[in-house]
Design a protein that fits this description.
globular; 20 helices; twelve-stranded mixed β-sheet; 43% helix
């Protein structure tokens, strides 16, 4: 029997997005294609049912993939069935029994520490999950930070999964020997029975070893009057005079260096070097980066004035995970990179600050490290100020419209949208030009776009720069702020024509519907973290030098721990917001799949979250739009547009051209 993807989803009891996710993870064979139509069969249905059954029995998706590859005898499946626990608790009931908020269950699931059966509202949990969550609640109530506990559990889970994978290999070898030797060991049933007895014995052995080791080491450390070595030391001092962030960035020779400027907030930071480097990869990169931030915060020892800025990490994520064998070359910009700088310059309304950080190994002399950091800060504070870059007058150039490949791509997308494969997809293109004076361009971007975040992330001789108008998320104390930015028109030559264009945009049913969809999508995503977004009734207009956008600010209040490491940070919120419909499309997974299959370049960090977080969890992440990848020989600029059923390919090309001019005008004036 043949199924369309929606029919297969109904028959198997999983979401369409889940089916596509199984395909991406190589758990489910691709469908048969006839032209633009995709057909599944009964084998796909049986495979999905098998995946769900094994997942309910406690196997991870990676382990299920291994079972499929080598468990021809069904030995491991039999073992799983004998140890199966009936998952019959929904999320609300599990939260009630464990006496925790429901969003904490989402945190544990997203970290990979608890595996439910089913998807969405159909998620079900085994009864033993209650004991696990009650234990976690007890630790948190005793003062252990949720993020620190999650980080520790993820480290433990990583090692346990490696051991489990080794055990699976052992079972598979036994299974193959059984197949080869017939009655060896008493046959298939005897092997299953033996493993059924050994699994709890091995689990008990590991548990007792962990508990004994934990007690022994904890007592030894509690009885030691000297502080435990290692960790990270940060020393801060305030400068007598304000600094020029762009000039400091331009003069830096560090392999890792970053710049972040918010003129309207009177805030800037420069990050030089890497005292600590975090580079998680794969689908768990956001939760891993968040946990690493919390773990690092627990290791930090701060020295300096009480009102000094908190140490920060700077970095970003790629649009999707993995590398693609197409241009441009994103070497140095992996799935995720977050850096605790060796030196951080923070410029804010109360003045300019210098922070220096260094990592200590067990037994290192913290006093000597502090002396070294203080000497380095003194050297930087008294160094001559770098010479600022000089910029010529900015001249408005013609928008770039010549890209027939992009026009054809948009036409293909419109055809697939009209056939029902997706509702919207955001397609981007690349424009290449010659080298630039990067410091001069950065200074001009900050001056010309004061409401944007001007950024630069340098790795060796390559830089990713831009001036993003789109805030993904800001977390400041108890307030989460984000913005829906969707719907674009150009600007005219004066205030009157600008206002007329803005009025046309506000009156367009198509643009207003597109914008409202983004607003609704963001508030729904925030709700998965227990955050209730508040929005004004009507959007306003964000006017930039070349374009105008519809904008709706969205805010939410969060509960945060008083003291210690926060159990909420800006990276966790970004995890549920990326990719937004404004940079991916709708539905999200099919749109991203379409982009990966058809867009003729690798997005890398373009249209992905970049920014900073302090080690208390506050920070700002922007969507890396109006951006460019810079090296010594060329600059590659990126620009995109949202494609829907009634889009016109030439109009969409023109929109990308207008957006490109935001950077090109500056670059062509900074020769």
């Amino acid at each position: 029997m043949d199924y369309h993807v929606e029919e297969l989803a109904d028959s198997s009891g999983v979401a369409v997005d889940t089916i596509r996710y199984y395909q991406r993870e190589k758990l489910l064979a691709p469908p048969r294609r006839e032209g633009r139509r995709a057909f599944y069969d009964d084998a796909h249905l049986e495979r999905i049912q098998e995946i769900r059954s094994l997942a309910q029995q406690g196997f991870s998706l990676a382990q299920i993939r291994e079972l499929s590859a080598g468990d021809g005898s069904g030995l491991l499946v039999d073992l799983a069935q004998q140890n199966a626990v009936d998952p019959d608790l929904d999320k609300a009931e599990l939260a009630r029994r464990a006496e925790i908020p429901e969003f904490l269950i989402d945190v544990v699931v997203s970290a990979g520490l608890l595996t439910p059966s089913g998807e969405g509202d159909d998620q079900r949990f085994a009864a033993d999950a209650v004991d696990m969550l009650v234990a976690a609640r007890t630790l948190v109530n005793e003062g252990v930070s949720l993020e620190e506990l999650t980080a520790l559990a993820m480290r433990h889970a990583t090692h346990i999964e490696n051991v489990v994978d080794d055990a699976i290999e052992l079972f598979k070898r036994n299974s193959r020997r059984h197949d080869a030797d017939g009655a060896e060991g008493g046959g298939h049933d005897d092997l299953v029975s033996l493993m059924h007895r050994l699994v709890p014995v091995a689990s008990n052995l590991v548990g007792q070893h962990f508990e004994r080791t934990l007690r022994t080491r904890a007592l030894a450390r509690l009885g030691d009057d000297t502080p435990v070595g290692g960790g990270v030391v940060v020393f801060a001092r305030k400068l007598d005079e304000r600094v020029d962030p762009v000039a400091i960035y331009a003069a830096a020779t560090d392999h890792h260096r970053s710049l972040w400027i918010r003129p309207d907030e009177q805030f800037a930071l420069v990050a030089l070097g890497a005292a600590e480097l975090v580079e998680p990869h794969g689908d768990s990169r956001f939760s891993a980066a968040s946990a690493a931030r919390a773990a690092l915060s627990a290791r930090i020892r701060r020295h300096g004035p009480a009102d000094a800025p908190a140490p920060v990490m700077v970095g970003g994520f790629s649009f999707t995970t993995g590398t693609r064998p197409i241009a441009p070359d994103w070497s140095g910009f992996p799935d995720a990179r977050w850096v605790l700088p060796e030196v951080t310059v923070v410029d804010r309304p109360d003045g300019s600050w210098l922070l220096a950080a260094t990592s200590l190994d067990e037994g290192d002399d913290e006093g000597a490290a502090l002396d070294m950091l203080e000497a380095r800060l003194e050297e930087m504070a008294t160094a001559p100020a770098p010479t600022p870059a000089v910029l010529g007058e900015i001249v408005r150039g013609d928008a770039t419209h010549d890209d027939p490949d992009y026009v054809r791509l948009v036409a293909e997308a419109i055809g697939d949208i009209r056939s029902g494969e997706l509702d919207k997809v955001v397609l981007a293109r690349v424009f290449t030009r010659g080298p630039i004076d990067t410091p001069a361009v950065l200074r001009a971007l900050a001056e010309r776009f004061p409401t944007c975040a001007t950024f630069a992330f340098g790795v060796g001789n390559r830089e990713f720069i831009g001036a993003s108008p789109e805030r993904l998320v800001t977390l400041d104390g108890r307030e989460v702020s984000t913005v829906a930015l969707a719907g674009t028109t150009g600007t005219g030559g004066d205030e009157t024509s600008d206002a007329e264009l803005a009025a046309e945009m506000m009156a367009s049913p198509k643009i207003r519907a597109e914008h409202q969809f983004v607003v609704d999508d963001i508030t729904a995503r925030l709700a998965t973290l227990g955050l209730v977004g508040e929005t004004p009734v009507e959007p306003d207009v964000m006017r930039l030098a070349r374009v105008q956008h519809l904008r709706t600010p969205i805010t939410a209040r969060v509960e945060r721990r008083s003291g210690g490491v926060s159990d909420m940070d800006v990276i966790r919120v970004a995890n549920v917001l990326h990719p937004s419909p404004a940079v991916g499309g709708t539905p999200s997974d099919p749109a991203v799949e379409w982009i990966l299959a058809n867009e003729r370049f690798d997005r890398g960090w373009y249209a992905a979250p970049v920014g900073w977080t302090d080690l208390d969890g506050n920070g700002e992440l922007r969507v890396a739009l109006r951006s460019a990848l810079v090296d010594e020989s060329q600059v590659q600029l990126f620009s995109g547009a949202g494609i829907v059923a009634d889009s016109d390919p030439d109009d969409e090309l023109a929109e990308t051209g207008v957006k490109l001019r935001a950077l090109l005008d500056v670059m062509e004036s900074a020769r």
